[in-house]
Amino acid sequence: MTTIAPESATVEEYMTRAVATVHPDDTVAAVAERIAAQDEYSGFPVTDDGHIEGFVSASDLLLANDESAIATVMSRDLLVAAPEMKVDAAARVILRSGIQRLPVVDEAGDLIGIISNADVIRSQIERATPDTVAELKSTIEQAHGVETDQARRDVSIDELRPTQSKVYGDELQGRQYELQRGLAEPLVVVDNDGELLLADGHHRSTAGRELGIEQMEAYVIETDEHVALELEEAAADAGVDRIADVEIVDYARHPLIESTERFRDDE
């Protein structure tokens, strides 16, 4: 069963694919002119035949000789994201790192897009949790031939069974910020004849537990009998029984965010 939950939107869905770039051999003066000629960019990814080599910002050019090559002043070690990374995770990296745009690269280190603050904002505006819950409800009914009810109620965090084993510390901080200000969306839970399977909201529920919150609001899909859901298989694969068992991983070790240093090492 495949579901599209609010936290599942990927960088690839929202990134800008037509990226303005500069070449390592371009001069400081030429790039400075490009930055001054428009208001949209304060810097550019530096690529050579599509391969990302670094990033150059306006501040990198301030004290540089006009005739110097961009390769001599650009930042070589920068954070890049994979296209399958979740938008929410990318948003936390952008926020924590103090950058405005995060380059997106493929396995070979070739630039395939860039995700910006504006792209992240657009992804948040387009969220539609009630529609997502309705889609999940319909999928369960059609796949298993059962009737389900939908409710919006508080659930105990300690009674939730996770369907993933890890959350990321940078995103967790963002979720705590939202919870403290009453901005967090409800969780999405399947009540499978008394077993509460967490379909969406692992960062939110972990953040709530870290803040000492015992109950959280959730969209709950209730089955009238126990059915063998793929969510149960996901929970078994995760190898954790409760939210307290979920591992909190530092964002710098996120499997889909890395430094360009790796691509230089592979060459």
From TrEMBL:
Keywords: CBS domain. It holds the Pfam family CBS. Coiled coil: none annotated. PROSITE patterns: CBS (PS51371). InterPro entries: CBS_dom, CBS_dom_sf, Diverse_CBS-Domain, ParB/Sulfiredoxin_sf, ParB_N, UCP004699_CBS/ParB. It comes from the Archaea. SUPFAM superfamilies: CBS-domain pair, ParB/Sulfiredoxin. This is CBS domain-containing protein. It comes from Halococcoides cellulosivorans.
